Amino acid sequence: LTYSYLNQIRTAIDLLASLPLIGPKTATKLAFWIIEAPKSKVDKLLDTIRELKDSLEPCRQCFSLTVRGRQPCDICQDRSRQRSICVVESAMDVFHIESSGTYNGYYHVLQGLISPLEGIGPGELRIEELLQRLQKGNYDEVILALPPTVDGDMTSMYIAERIRERQLELTVTRLGFGLPVGSTIDYADSLTLAKALENRKPI
Amino acid sequence: LTYSYLNQIRTAIDLLASLPLIGPKTATKLAFWIIEAPKSKVDKLLDTIRELKDSLEPCRQCFSLTVRGRQPCDICQDRSRQRSICVVESAMDVFHIESSGTYNGYYHVLQGLISPLEGIGPGELRIEELLQRLQKGNYDEVILALPPTVDGDMTSMYIAERIRERQLELTVTRLGFGLPVGSTIDYADSLTLAKALENRKPI
Predict the structure, then answer these.
(1) Residue B20 CA, distance from chain mean position
(2) Which of A10, A21, A54, A96 to mutate to test the interface with B (most CBs of B within 10 A)?
């Protein structure tokens, strides 16, 4: 592009397009929204991003998020929850499960999954910290809520094995697999269909 | 949500989801990217948004964008361009056409389209400013590059009529309509197909 200000817009679009789930079309729309929206709205966006970045940090017990300086997090401190630990890949999963209102126990965020392809071994995840929490004996159940993928399956197997080795008195479960509610049979892939048949229930 | 920090994340997601082309899924991914990305990357994003907002303003001649304080814009000041004005809806259109490298004349941004449904009349657009530019007699052609929609058609007609009234010695043209290059016949809607037939050419 011939003019410096057009190149500035192009550079901004390229940066926006590098964010997760943002393609070039959305990045362009966003850039021109930033240019043309009232200054107060753009300031509000800037403040929201800055506050989100500055006010949270990982919980040192469950590795989900907490208000900066508040350790452990509100969920870890909540004595009214049931004595189970839900093991998830990321803090975003905790947010999803809490938003759904379907679970009332504690969490442990692995901060990733075992992945030979990406060169991520168990030592890089928060598995040792999980085992230490379990060893203290405050929990009745571990729910492995990891995705039904190669990496998720491998990580679940690995954790289940480590728990068995330590002979802890704990129920270890995984999330049930099957058809998503509201979906149709013809859209289900064959693995999901196989799991759904395997997990069939009398009505 | 029970905890204030989860509500803060929820509020941030809602704000991000109010941006153009951003749905709730993308907004959630973005929020957690902001929380988990290195601080330097988030600072770069904040700086990019702030600079984009602060460094540009509308050109007072063509109503496209210019570096703040540089009036008129680089394109308006470029004496080497051909003596035509391309009339577009928004500054984003100027960016697209300049990026395509297919046009080498001047621009005029209407900042919208005539739209009875949205209550936007000709007086709210930069049509009078366009006519004044044309009246000075520096141009040979006006290219109406407005979208082939009801509002775009109406706005094109209105502008063509005002130019005719003033008896200016100018060619007034519209962009050609037809099949997008690389598209297939079976995906073309019937109006596009009708236009494509009407605009057929000997080979």
Answers:
(1) 14
(2) A21
